[in-house]
């Protein structure tokens, strides 16, 4: 779990990012102006900062330069609609650790968040591998193996499997999975979860994912007990 500061003046984007980070186990704080964000950042109480450039007072470059000038070394991911080479270079030269243009996919942002948190986190605080039985997920390499055999997954399938493996033997509702893997974009009545569960079952085999009527799904090592495939 990490404390993450979001400096973003667009309410729709900040709430979307905060919701996704919360679902991933992090604690987000939102600041809507450069001055407010800088005030938060200078406390040193954050593990990572997600920073917009087009803020209503100080722009993100100014916030970043003042942070670095006052010795704040917190990793910063710039998230902005400005995607020119010049803006990217200015952001990185001002001390940003990463630069991500809008529009963006949350799963990609989350992967970058994990990457930037990893060097700064205390030893053992960041999980790099998940394992349930002989199914192993290597998060940094974005790879999954089953009994030593590599399983090719799309980015969304990987995120869904990560959600399941992180909560092995727990019941996850469709709404929880929508929130964690797809974010705010999808209708709660969508069958997209069921579709991707079928994709996963085809790739990792029957028995891993149990459907619980009116409740959702439970993931766990197959036990040969007739679990629904």
From TrEMBL:
Q: Which UniProt keywords apply?
A: DNA-binding, Phosphoprotein, Transcription, Transcription regulation, Two-component regulatory system
Write the protein's name.
Response regulator transcription factor
Domain OmpR/PhoB-type residues, every copy? 127-221
Q: Which PANTHER family would you find in this protein's record?
A: REGULATOR OF RPOS, TWO-COMPONENT RESPONSE REGULATOR
GO MF annotation, one: transcription cis-regulatory region binding
Offer one Pfam family short name for this entry.
Trans_reg_C
Instruction: PTM 4-aspartylphosphate: list the residues.
Output: 52
